[in-house]
Please model this.
Amino acid sequence: MSDVLSRLVRTIDSRKVADPARVESHVADLLAGGPLKCAEKFGEESVEAIIACVAGDRENLTREAADVVFHLLVMLAAGNVRFDDVLVELERREGMSGVAEKRQRDRRP
Model:
């Protein structure tokens, strides 16, 4: 994981126990709202990235993609999923075609 992602994950994790009434933190506010609030914000940012992509706005897409990654990490924290576990899953899939991976998932009980 890049250094910036590692630092960001650590910061988000530290905000899980922060009191949003005492700490000025967007992450603490989102996490206090629970998984639904975090998922809604992730969805909102994803739509904004899609719109920028379709519009061919490379500069805005770059900014919106950063927002998507950031809010994905917040949503994972709200769902008690570690980003390292996501990376392990990506490593498991490495070298496997998307078709084969989907077929493997469909066979799981």
